[in-house]
């Protein structure tokens, strides 16, 4: 490989292996080492690497027209992807989709869309967006401000807009000292309290991940949480934005994660699995009412990005969704998720494993110092990174994270393999993870 002295890397001190090729759930580096992609990168690769049908669809689009600007043309690929998403939506009222290049762009677009909607609906005082601590909505400054991960936010605090945050729905570490068996969902009622304090007439929307991903490791709320949130949003006329960048497009065993609770949001933000990583792609799907209010009002969404709705990415997304449908991969994510949970349960008795949780092929393992008190590891020990490094050395890619407890402390490992993973490959994944945990436990 050519000398690589002019790339600005994410971790400036790390020496990265060179990715050479990938197929199915495996990636090979240029030295010939094979890695099982246990996290689909960062919860991106849903249908597996190197699927010929996707490459073919991309080639066809590439030859026809790879790029036109969305201010000049529409294109058949975008129309097809819009139709496919409408057919997958939790409700047919979610009828329009705005295409972008990734999750952060999609979050920012959703927020601007809601704000413009309220202005055009004659409620110009509605502008605040409430979100939750221990959440992640992206790294652009608007999205980062909504996120609740202190370690990611703290460098940029002075340039982040101050927005209201409420406590997460995190049963293992309940902010209200409740236990799931008897709790009455104070974490959901927090939203109502916050709206009242902020003044309902100033609140435009509430945004949250149906199952929290990057910042806390597949935290699944108690049943009833999302239904209560929906009720509160309806009572105070607040739009509900489901950030399904990780949980959407089958990851949690349903088309969209929030469908696990039968709730219909007003906007759905998606990315990652939408293109399975074959191209950068994000989207915001909105209810008819939002679209028609703007259409019948100013007629123009005052927004746009150069690569929004581009033919190559939308053709890729359409091919991915067709592939998911043809191969029943959403159902497969649900079924293989059950198998993954059964296998991961074998790790539960380890001293450093606090909780194993998840939905579909979206699993989190919270790592702790003490089982009885649920005390977390010292942040300087970087336990999750060390476990992930050990796994990587042994040929397993995972997505480690920290800060779930309070934005700074807490360690977890996130697993989100492609939906095409087999039982044998899940066994391989769990065996490597067990070895990695063992290796790190010896050094603590
Ligand atoms: C829930 C959620 N929202 C938004 C984003 C931002 O997406 P992107 O990295 O594509 O900008 C992420 C990324 O991990 C995410 O997990």
Give the strand order of the largest sheet, numbering strands 1, 2, ... along the chain: 4-10-9-8-7-5-6
Radius of gyration: 21 Å
For this structure, the CATH topology of the largest domain is Aspartate Aminotransferase, domain 2
- Termini distance? 38 Å
State the fourth-level CATH superfamily of the largest domain: Type I PLP-dependent aspartate aminotransferase-like (Major domain)
**Biggest sheet statistics:** 7 strands, mixed
Give average pLDDT, whole number: 97
The ordered H/E elements are EEEHHHEHEHHEHEHEEEHHHEEHEEEH
Helix content: 25-40%
- Number-wise, the strands total 15
Q: Identify low-pLDDT runs.
A: none
CATH architecture of the largest domain: 3-Layer(aba) Sandwich
Task: Report the principal-axis shape.
Answer: globular
Estimated share of beta-strand residues: 15-25%
Number of alpha- plus pi-helical segments: 13
| CATH C-level name of the largest domain | Alpha Beta
| Number of separate domains | 2
In this entry the ligands are: pyridoxal-5'-phosphate
Structural class: alpha/beta
């Amino acid at each position: 490989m050519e000398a690589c002295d002019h790339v600005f890397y994410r971790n400036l001190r790390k020496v990265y292996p060179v990715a050479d090729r990938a197929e199915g759930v495996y990636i090979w580096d240029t030295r010939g080492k094979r890695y099982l992609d246990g996290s689909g990168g960062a919860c991106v690769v849903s249908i597996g690497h190197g699927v010929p049908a996707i490459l073919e669809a991309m080639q066809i689009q590439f030859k026809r027209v790879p790029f036109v600007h969305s201010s000049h043309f529409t294109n058949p690929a975008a129309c097809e992807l819009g139709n496919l998403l409408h057919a997958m939506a939790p409700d047919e009222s979610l009828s329009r989709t705005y295409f972008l290049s990734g999750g952060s762009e999609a979050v920012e677009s959703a927020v601007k869309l809601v704000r413009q909607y309220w202005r055009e609906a004659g409620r110009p005082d509605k502008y605040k967006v409430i979100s939750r601590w221990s959440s992640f909505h992206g790294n652009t400054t608007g999205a980062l401000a909504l996120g609740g991960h202190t370690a990611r936010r703290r460098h940029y605090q002075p340039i982040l807009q101050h927005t209201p945050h409420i406590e997460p729905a995190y049963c293992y570490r309940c902010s209200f000292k409740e236990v799931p068996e008897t709790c009455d969902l104070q974490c959901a009622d927090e939203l109502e309290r916050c709206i009242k304090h902020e003044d309902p007439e100033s609140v435009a929307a509430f945004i949250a991940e149906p199952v929290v991903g990057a910042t806390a490791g597949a935290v699944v709320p108690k049943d009833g949480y999302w239904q209560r949130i929906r009720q509160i949003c309806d009572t105070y006329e607040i739009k509900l934005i489901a950030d399904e960048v990780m949980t959407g497009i089958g990851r949690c065993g349903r088309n969209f994660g929030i469908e696990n609770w039968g709730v219909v949001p007003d906007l759905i933000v998606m990315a990652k699995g939408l293109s399975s990583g074959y191209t950068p792609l994000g989207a915001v799907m909105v209810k008819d009412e939002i679209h028609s209010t703007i259409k019948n009002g100013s007629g123009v969404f005052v927004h746009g990005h150069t690569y929004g709705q581009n033919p190559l990415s939308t053709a890729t997304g359409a091919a991915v969704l067709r592939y998911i449908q043809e191969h029943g991969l959403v159902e497969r994510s649900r079924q293989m998720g059950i198998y993954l949970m059964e296998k991961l349960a074998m790790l539960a008795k380890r001293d450093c494993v606090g909780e194993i949780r998840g939905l579909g092929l979206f699993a989190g393992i919270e790592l702790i110092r003490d089982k009885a008190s649920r005390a977390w590891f010292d942040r300087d020990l970087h336990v999750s990174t060390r476990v992930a490094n050990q796994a990587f050395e042994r040929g397993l890619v995972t997505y480690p994270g920290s800060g779930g407890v309070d934005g700074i402390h807490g360690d977890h490992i996130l697993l989100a393999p492609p939906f095409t993973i087999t039982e044998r490959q899940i066994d391989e994944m769990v065996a490597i993870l067990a070895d990695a945990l063992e290796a790190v436990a010896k050094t603590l």
